[in-house]
Amino acid sequence: MSSAGLSLRAAAMAHAQAGYHVIPLKAGKKARRTHKGTLPSCDPVVVRRWWARMPNANIGLVLNLLSIVILDVDGLVGV
Question: What integer best gives the mean pLDDT of the chain?
Fold first, then answer.
């Protein structure tokens, strides 16, 4: 596994341990890598299993129940 994969898995686990529901995303995309209908999870066993199978997956966080707003600005405008 690459060091990026280890970092992504560690970050996903840290988010899950903080109580955030995570879901693996396609690299460079905002599309899930799991089957349709798979629910995000904060269960460390589930999260560890996902990133063992998909070590380079980006991390999606489900925040809609927490009243948190995220602004994602890509490109030079976001610098």
Answer: 82
Q: Could you tell me what percentage of the chain is helix, strand and coil, using 3-state DSSP and rounding each to the nearest 5?
A: 35, 15, 50
CA 49, CA 68: separation in Å to the nearest integer? 27
Q: Measured between alpha carbons, how far is 79 from 68 in angstroms, rounded to an integer?
A: 22
**pLDDT per residue as tens digits for the range 2-11:** 556 568 999 9
Residue 12: name the closest of 22, 3, 4 by CA.
22
Q: How far apart are CA 22 and CA 45, in angstroms?
A: 12
pLDDT in tens, 2-48: 556 568 999 999 999 998 999 999 987 778 888 888 889 999 999 99
